[in-house]
Amino acid sequence: MLEMTDPFFSFLRDHPSWFIGFAGLLGLMVGSFLNVVIHRLPKMMEAEWRANCASLDDAPAPETSRYNLVAPRSACPSCGHAIGALENIPVLSYLALGGKCKGCKARISPRYPLVELLTGAMTAAIAWQLGYGGSAVAAWLFAWAMIALTFIDFDTQLLPDDITLPLLWGGLLFNLDHGFTDLHSAVIGAIAGYLSLWSIYWAFKLVTGKEGMGYGDFKLLAAIGAWFGWQLLPAVILLSSVAGSVVGIALMLLARHGRNVPMPFGPYLAMGGIAALFWGPQLAGFYLTR
């Protein structure tokens, strides 16, 4: 196996502090890629929907240039300046450029380095808590998906199936060999996670005639249940509901958001999922008898 024969991985296994540092650097680089996913995946979905609608109407598909997660090359949206390799170093390039485009000096959103720093810190924290091994790698994938879904939902109020469904199946596969929970609990967690929010959705719609959440929220909670089991679903739902309520009230008071302004729920479910990752046994201990 690679971790047993490769000197680099053997070194990381035997030196926890270096493993944590490596995880932080890896997280910074992944965070840079997550910025691309957050920006481009919704646009890719929109292009696919337009093409599907055109095919239903027997209309010619709209001509579009190649656009995916790797092409075209990243460029400044203001002047089209192609971003070079030295301008794409996580966090450092943003600081060196003073938060401005090298070509036109347009302001670069501080959210880009924020996502990179958040991903780096989360990746390092997982390495510190779980140590060297497959569980840390699986937890990294889960956390990276949570970060991408959080910012996509904030921007578009969408939770792409391209992330939530692989995340769900990934949780079930990881728990085949008792990863974070046993497979029985993971399967029930996936089912219960979906049905719990699905029931709330339909109850709210029958009473008010309005949709209180989207189907992506059902799938996200199902994925969290698949990773950590049904036992943690009450804690995840409670934490996400409290966080969403606090933020919603704060927005109404400080930003004067009206009650009819829709607010994404996915980011708060993601927060609950991260809490389950780091403090799952402690959270479940509050209401499960030993």
Structure description:
By secondary structure, the chain is an all-alpha fold. Helix content is 68%, strand content 0%. Helix 2 crosses helix 3, helix 3 packs across helix 5 and helix 7 runs antiparallel to helix 8. The longest helix has 41 residues, at 16-56. The two termini are 38 Å apart.
Percent of residues in β-strands:
under 5%
**How helical, in percent, are the residues?**
55-70%
Average pLDDT works out at: 90
Shape: globular
Question: Which segments are poorly predicted (pLDDT under 50) over 5 or more consecutive residues?
Answer: none
Largest sheet: none
The arrangement of helices and strands along the chain is: HHHHHHHHHHH
Number of alpha- plus pi-helical segments: 11
Gyration radius (Cα, Å) is 21 Å
Query: What is the CA-CA span between the terminal residues?
Result: 38 Å
* Tally of strands: 0
Q: What structural category do the secondary elements indicate?
A: mainly alpha
